[in-house]
Design goal:
The chain is an alpha/beta fold and 292 residues long. It has 12 helices and 7 strands. β3 and β4 form a beta hairpin.
């Protein structure tokens, strides 16, 4: 469904959950889950729109959703952290409301308690540091504060894959220790997260290119505000694509090209490097060729 320029769709994983719920006759639980997930994702959308982000599509999942934005990787970490937190915060206020309703004796107390548990489960699960969960996005924002974007992207994917495997193994713990059954819901979600991050690992070069494509707009915006530039010092023989891997997400860069003796050959703004990278057929050309 397209509404206000955003395509809202239901992920196949959610469709499977809905079909299983319908087959089991759990229609009330199905409708409740859909509403909680929708409001959760609506929190992300409202927060993103408040920062002027352009959202193309929102895919609803059993535990939240995935929003595709045009600024992917190019927005400040502060903004992305706020947008990531906006989803779980919706579950917090809905849980508080349900708890209050239960305390006042309005409606069925058992239903209110289940609503509190469902909201807290969605909120806490989303805070697991696995991408694309909200916790994974927050974790990547933290890494971007500590290292280059290329390294932060790589470590986010590695850690997400490791934690997805741990989550998959945890689905069998109840069977091994207590003689119970396998938690198929946990296993299904873990497999989905593992497949998603494995795909991210394969597409990492394209994800980095997408980040670079958004850099010119980010740099121009911050340069107009008088942003302080972060220096990058490289040797003249350093390949152009290698220099771009030193870029930090929340910084505007000036690249100082120096000899081994420390002699300054030239200073290049990051926009010039980006333009040369996308306009040139040889990303391996030495950065010294850009100095006039």
């Amino acid at each position: 469904i397209k509404f206000r320029g955003i395509v809202w769709s239901v992920h196949p994983l959610f469709v499977i959950v809905m079909l299983l719920s319908a087959a089991a006759g759990r229609f009330a639980e199905l409708i409740t889950l859909f509403i909680l997930v929708f409001v959760h994702e609506l929190g992300h959308v409202v927060a993103a729109r408040s920062f002027g982000w352009h959202i193309r599509e929102v895919k609803l999942l059993p535990f939240g959703g995935v929003a595709e934005t045009e600024e992917a990787g190019g927005m400040p970490t502060r903004e992305e952290a706020i947008v990531a937190l906006a989803g779980p915060l919706q579950n917090v206020w809905m849980a508080a409301l349900a708890w209050g309703i239960g305390q006042m004796g309005i409606g069925d107390p058992a239903w209110a308690n289940e609503l509190v548990e469902a909201n807290m489960l969605i909120a806490l699960f989303n805070m697991i540091p696995i991408h694309p969960l909200d916790g994974g996005k927050l974790f990547q924002c933290l890494l971007c504060r500590l290292m280059t974007y290329h390294l932060a992207l790589a470590w986010t994917i590695r850690i997400s894959i490791a934690l997805s495997l741990i989550l998959a193994v945890s689905a069998f713990i109840q069977q091994l220790w207590h003689g119970g059954g396998i938690q198929l819901n946990v296993l299904t979600i873990a497999i989905f997260l593992l497949a998603t991050n494995w795909t991210q690992r394969r597409h990492m070069p394209f994800l980095f290119i997408r980040f670079l494509m958004n850099r010119e707009r980010y740099a121009s915006k911050h340069m107009n505000r008088g942003a302080r530039a972060a220096p990058i010092i490289v040797r003249p023989e350093t390949a152009l694509h290698a220099v771009l891997k030193y870029f930090h997400r929340d910084a505007v860069h000036l690249v100082y090209v120096t000899t081994a003796r420390g002699e300054l050959l030239g200073i290049l703004p990051e926009n010039e490097l980006l333009h040369s990278f996308f306009a040139s057929a040889n990303p391996n050309r030495p950065v010294a060729e850009l100095i006039i």
